[in-house]
Structure prediction request, 872 residues.
Amino acid sequence: MIFNSVTFGVFLAISVLLYWILPNRLRIWYVFLSGLVFYGFWKVEFIPLMLFTAFLDYFVALKIESIDPSLKSKRFKWLLLSFIANFGLLIYFKYLLFFTNNLNDLFLFIGWEVNIPLMKIILPLGISFYTFESVCYTVDVYRGHLKANKDWVLYGSFITFFPKLIAGPILRASEILDQIKTRVDFKYSYLVDGFIRILFGLCLKVVLADNISPLVDEIYTGNYSYYSAIDVWTMAFLFGFQIYFDFAAYSHIAIGCGKMLGINISENFNYPYIATSFKDFWKRWHISLSSWIRDYLYLPLTGKKVMEKSSGNVKDINEVDFEVSTSKKNRALFITWSIMGLWHGANWTFLVWGLYHATLIYFERKFVFIRNLFGKKYPAILGWGVTFPLAMLSWIPFRAQNLSETFSLYSKVVNPGCYNFISLRENIYLITFLILILFLFNYFYTFKIESIIKKYIILDSVINIFKLTVVIILTITFLRPISQFIYFQF
Amino acid sequence: MNKDLVKLLVLVVSFLFAMFIIQHYFSDKTRFENLALNEETKEYLPIKDNFPIHILKLENFNKFHKGIINRNLNERILFLGNSQTHSINQLKPGDKNYVEYAFDSLSKMGTDAVCVSMPNINLQETYLAYKFLSDTIGFQQIYIPVFYDDLREDGIRDDGSFNHLKEIGYSIKLQDAFSNKINKILDGLKQTSTLNQGSGNNQDIKALNETTQEVVEEYFNNQLIEHTEVWDNRAEIRGRLFFELYKLRNSLFNINAQTKRKKIKSRYDANILALINILEDGQRKNLKIILYIPPIRKDVEFPYVKEEYNNFKKEIKSLAKKYNKVYYEDLDSLVAGKYWGFKSSTTFNGKAEYDFMHFQNQGHRILSDTLIGIYHKIKNDI
Prediction:
C-alpha cells in the first residue's frame, strides 16, 4: 500500500482505532495481520515470501538460544542458515538478472556463443528492508544482545509492522518488540503529534518530491552530449533534493504512524545536507541503514567485537579507539561501501556511488590532522562548503542509467571548458536555486529562530496555524499516488 | 493552557482555515489551460455534419476518421498545428479558424481539409502525429507550420494526448533509430482510461498500476468526487496554483510575452532531427509537404533573438530544398498587427500583454486564403 493515497488514510484510521480499543492479545494479532493486509495491497502473492523469511529466523533464533553458548560453531551453523536463506532470496530476486546480464556480456566479449536466458523476476517490495531486520534479529540473539522471542505472533508483528514495512526505517527487534508487546497509556497528543508528522511527510512527498520528479526525469533522459558542467551540478542538486524529500517523507510518515500508535520509531534523517563532513553526513542520512551497516558489517569486518547493544541510533555507540590496523580499517571501509552501494540497486552505478563515498571518507580520515589543527575553532562552514556539493555530486551515479553516462557527466565537472554555457530550460536552474534557498531557510528557521518563538505561545500558535494551513491545502490538492517512493525500488 | 490542547486547537483551526480557503478561493472552475490565454482567446474546433474536421490532440479520433470516410472526397489535405490553429482571439459568432475556411473552400472542389493540433506541439510530437495520421489516412498534402517557439519543447507529452495510440497499440513500423526512440517513448507513456478523463483521475493513480490497491483507490476517489466538490476540482486547483507561481516568477524576474526566448540547442537539434524524419518519410510516401513559418506578430518587438530566429528560418528553407515535393513558405509577416490581440497578464501587475501567437478571425481568413493559394499552386506538381 502506498502512503500517498486515500486508501492508506482509511487504512490508518481503522488501524489506529483498533489499536487503541482492542485488548492486548488481539491488538498484537491485529498489528501482525494489518501488516499483511498493507503488503497485500501491493501483491498478495509475495506475502508467503515475507512470512517465510520472518518465521525461518524466528525458529533459527530459538534454536540458537537453545544451544549452549560455549558451542559456538554449532550456534554459528544456525546463524549461517539464516544468512544463506535470507541473502539467497535477496540475491535471487534482486541480483540474478544483473548477474545474468553481466555474464552474457562477458561471454559475448570473449566470443563465446552462450546466452543465458533472462528470467522475468519481480522484485518484492521491501525485501531489502525486512531481510536486514530479520537477519539482525538472529545476529543479536547469536551475540547474546537479545533474548529469542517465544511469541511468533509478536515476532511476526515486528517484521510486518506496517509503518516501516516497505522502505524503513530499518528497525532492530530490541527497539520495537517491547513497544508492540505492551501498549502505552493513550494520550491524544499521540494522535495529534503523529498526524501532524504524517501531514508534513505527505507534503514533502506529494508537493515537493513528486513535482521535482518530472524535471529530474526530463534532464536525465536528455542528450548529455549537450550538457555543461553547470547543468551536471544542477542535475546533481535537483535529484539530491528529490531523493531527500522523497525518502525523508517516507520516514516522517512512518514515524508519524508509529507515534499515533504510541510507538517510538527512531529518526532516520537529521538534516543531512547540513553535514560538515562525510562521517557526519552518514550520521544524518538514512541513519537506520548506516548504523545497521556499521554494527553488522563494518565493525565485524574490522575484527572488532560489537560489545554495545545499539538501539540503532548512531549516538549510542561509543566510538572508542580501534585497535585495528589502518589497512584493515580501510579494507573494511571499501568492502562495506561496495556492499552498501549494491544494496541500493543491481547496477554498477550503485557500486560507483558506494566507492565514491568510501573514497571521500578515506581522504577525510587521511586529512583529519588539518581539522585537528583547528581544534574546536574549525569553521563548520568550511566543512559544509566542501561536504554539501560533493554529497550532491554523489547522486549522479545513483540516478544515471549506466557507467558510461556516469563518467560522461563527471568528466564535464572536471573540465573547465564546460563551465561557460548552459543548456537546460531556464526554469530548471531557477527551481533548483529556490529549493536550495528554501532548504537553507528551513534549517535556519528550525535551529535559530523557532526556539525563540516557542517562548511566546500565541505567536508560536499563530505561526503554526499558518504553516499547517498551507501544508493542509497543498497536501489535499496534491495528494495522489502518481509515483511510488524512490526507495521502493531498493 | 495545556500544551497538548493548544496543539489540538492549532490543528483543528488550521484544518478549518484550509477548507475555507480551498472552498472559496479556488472554487472558480475556469479551466487553468485557458488562464494562459486571454479570456478573449477561445478554443475553436469546427464540426461539419456532426463530424469534427479539426480535433485537439487525438481526442475523438474515431469520429474524426469516420467523417473523412463518409465525405469520401477525392483528395485529402492535413493541417497540423499548435494553439494558433485551434484558437481565435476575440471570438465572435460567425468566426471561423483557417482550417474551417480552407475546408469550406476546398470541399466544394472535392478536397477534404482536416486538422489535428496540440498546444505547444514540438516537432517530435508532430512526427508521431504525422506518422500515425499518414499511415492511417491517405493524404496528398500535409501542411506543417514550424513554430520557432515550440522548438524549445522536447519529448512526447505524457498527459493523455496520445492516448488513442496507446489504446490501439500503435507503433511506428520503421526500423530506424529515431522511430525506435519515439516508439520507446510511446511505450513508456501511461495509458489513461477514457473514463473520468475530464477530472484526470486515472492519471492520478498511475503509481498503483496493476496492484490490488488500484481498484480500491479508484473506488474511494469516485466516492470523494461524488460527495465533495473539492476532490473533483483538485486538478484545476493545482493548475491555478502553478499559474500563480508562474505569475510570481514573471513578476520577480520581469518576464513577459516580449522577453527574449533563447534557443535551447539540445531541444532544437532534437526537433530538427524529427523534422528531417518527417521529410524523409514524406518522400518515401510521395507526399507533398508544405513547411511554413507561421504568422507571428511583428508590429512590436518580438520575443526571439533576431539572429537565432533568422538562422532558424534559413535552416528550414535549406532543409526544404533538399527534398522533392517539400515546399517552403515564410508567412511570419502575413497577418497585420491590427488582427492580433492581447492576452491576460502573466504577472501580478495585471497589464494585458501582446499575444504573439493567436490572431483574430481576420487573421485566420488571411492565412486560409494564403494556404489555399499554395494548395492550388502545387496541386499539379508531379
In short: The first helix of chain A runs from residue 6 to 21. Chain A touches chain B through 46 residues (CB under 8 Å).
